[in-house]
Amino acid sequence: MTSTLDPRIGTFAAEHVALGLLKFDRRYQTDHHSAQFIDKIAADWLPEKAGAIVASLRRRVPDLSRRDLEPSRGPQDEDGGYYVLDGRARVLAARQAGAESILTVVYRDLDLEQEAEIFDWMNRVRRRPKLMETFRARELYQAPATLDIIAACRESGVEVGPRFGGLPGRIECIRALDSIHAFSPARLREILRMLVKVWPNSHHALSERAVVGLHGFWRRYAETMSLNRLEHVLSLTSPEEMSSLASQYKVIERTSAANAWARVLLQKYNHRLKVGLLDPWRDKPTHSTTSLKRSPDPQKRLSRLEERLKVAENKARAGSGKWSAVDVAQTALDEEKWRQHSVDIQSTAGKMAKRLAELDEERGRQTGRDPLELS
User: Fold this and answer.
1) Are residues 145 and 236 in the same domain?
2) 3-state secondary structure (DSSP) of residue 335
3) In 3-state terms, what secondary structure has residue 295?
4) Parallel, antiparallel, or unpaired for β 76-77 and 53-60?
5) Which residue has the higher pLDDT, 290 or 185?
6) 350 domain-assigned
7) Integer Cα distance of 211 and 204 in angstroms
8) Which among 88, 108, 124 is the end of a domain?
9) What is the DSSP annotation of 12-51?
10) How far is Cα 356 from Cα 319, in angstroms, rounded to an integer?
11) Mean pLDDT across the chain
12) Which one of 204, 238, 263, 303 is at 20 to 30 Å from 246 when CA atoms are compared?
């Protein structure tokens, strides 16, 4: 099959090309694919799935001593060969999978500028498929995990599909569904059942931050929390209120929306609870908070949280803010104080233990006895 494009571009044909003949021009291509990405493609390699790559056939440099060779159009290379314009990752994965050749759309009679233009257009003017589109494709070829996700949603009366701005009973957070189902299909069913039960008529109930936030909370406190208490707490609030508080908490703590949602849920769970309190939430240091948490001045973060609390109180008194924001800021300040207090207690205990050991050693030297015998 040979076709003609714009006259200045030349012709192209589809053929199977040996992988050993394919090369890359490093003047406009770099090794930007990670080894994990290549391994993922190679592990499930099928030529039918890979499709066709695109390459440019370069001519060899002509031997000027031979008059029977006419100068050829296009970039000339000492070795000649096929230079990949689109499909670098597939070529590397095919080699790793042990394939011998790959279907290639081969352009001929291109100059270097045209090669670069085609490479730029193919890699820039391109849209990644939406998650909902890939989910529907998996549904059509009946991927087992996808079919089970659809079944789990329907068990709770939910359909997977776009919410179009506010349709209840629909869920469209495909990435969250895939992630939670990979962790535990039973957990996905429990989360969907609970959210639909406590908030049956709200389109915010099945938002991504609610689904992922509840999963994060559940995963962290699965062994210590009470499901009845959790369901009761959720029934006393609304998804709109949870989202509003989470948005404020996200700004204060510089964390993700789902993480902030889970921490707001923790605050509500422990509210007025004397027995069965859950442990405080401790985040791993992130890029935005590492410098603050590791600051040599322990008062730096504390003073910043106190300043935010004052700003929230002033806005609430002036009517330009909500008192719920004051509660969130106060909780963050209390957690930081508790964290620093715990560090101080551990530091004091360590100093006391060290001092007691020194005293025992000194008494042992004075009496000539082993310090362990004195204790």
Assistant:
1) yes
2) helix
3) coil
4) parallel
5) 185
6) no
7) 10
8) 124
9) EEEEEEEGGGEE--TTT----S-HHHHHHHHHT--HHHH-
10) 56
11) 79
12) 303
DSSP category for residue 8 = T
Shared-domain flag, residues 38 and 159:
no
2 — pLDDT class (breaks 50, 70, 90): very low
Q: What is the pLDDT of residue 67?
A: 41
DSSP assigned state of 61? P
- Is residue 147 very low, low, confident or very high in pLDDT (cuts 50, 70, 90)? very high
Model pLDDT, residue 193: 94
* The pLDDT value given to residue 349: 59
End-of-domain residue from the set 58, 90, 124: 124
Same domain, 116 and 142: no
Residue 153 has pLDDT above 90, yes or no: yes
Residue 302 lies in a domain: no
Q: Is residue 300 part of a domain?
A: no
- Please tell me the distance from the alpha carbon of residue 95 to that of residue 19, in angstroms, as a whole number: 7
**Spatial distance between the Cα atoms of 92 and 31, rounded to a whole number of angstroms:** 11
Identify the DSSP state of 288: T
Give the chain's domain count: 2
SS3 labels along 245-262: HHHHHHHHHCCCHHHHHH
* Residue 25 burial (10 A CB sphere; 0-12, 13-18, 19+): middle
Question: Which H helix or E strand runs over 86?
Answer: strand 81-86
Q: Among 45-54, 181-190, 200-209, 300-309, where is mean pLDDT lowest?
A: 300-309
Q: Is 25:115 a contact under the CB 8 Å cutoff? A: yes
Stated pTM of the model:
0.60
Range of the domain at 13: 2-124
The helix/strand/coil state of 319 is coil
State the pLDDT confidence band at 167, using cuts at 50, 70 and 90: low
Q: Which contacts qualify for 281-288: CB closer than 8 Å, 24 or more apart?
A: 281/220, 281/335, 283/253, 283/255, 283/259, 286/254, 286/255, 288/254
First vs last C-alpha separation in the chain: 92
